[in-house]
Amino acid sequence: MYSYKIYGLLVSSDLEIHEAYQIDEQKTYDVTIRSDLAENKGDEDLTDYERETLKKVGGYRRYSKDKVAGLGIADVGFFTMKGGKEITYWLKDGANAEHVRQIMLCHCLNIIMMQRSIVSIHGSGLINDGKGLIISGNSGAGKSTLSTALLAKGLGYMADDVNAIDLSGGSVMMQPAFPQRKLCVDTAVHFGFDLNNYSIIPSPEKEKYGVRVTENFSTDAVALKTIVIIEPKEIEEVRIRQILGSEKLKCVVNNVFAKEDYDKVGFGPIEFGQCLKIAEAVDIYIMNRPLVGKTVDKQIEKLSDCDIIGKQLELH
Question: What is the model's pTM?
Answer without folding.
Answer: 0.88
